[in-house]
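Need tokens for this chain, all 139 residues.
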Amino acid sequence: MDVLDSQLIAALRRDGRASLSVLAADLKITRATVRARMDRLQAAGDIAGFTVLTRTDVAAHPVRGLMMLEIAGPGTDRIVSRLRSMAAVTAVHSTNGNWDVIAEIGTDSLESFDAVLNAIRQISGVTRSETSLLLSSRR
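Here are the structure tokens for all 139 residues:
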């Protein structure tokens, strides 16, 4: 993947529905070049697919954060299932390093956010946590 491929992917991330003409104009290349590069990137697996964001996907919760969790013993699957069942937990990620799991959390207020954190800390097997509030997201 070269610089132009990276620029094309960045443009598609900004607007996945951009026409070939718009992409070509933005990147100062021909439509044929855009089409050929997109086809090649898809064939190579660099572009794995396209998706749609709905209104609920982009309606950010006013209070969002990441909660890193340390889990004792073999309870990870049980704890991940419990986290996924919580409405305020928008995603759960396994990770390496000091933390076993990272939970993305979104709520409508700091009070609700605090209640979710407390509920997660009460789950048997969660031994330690650290939480960071997300202040802004850049795309």
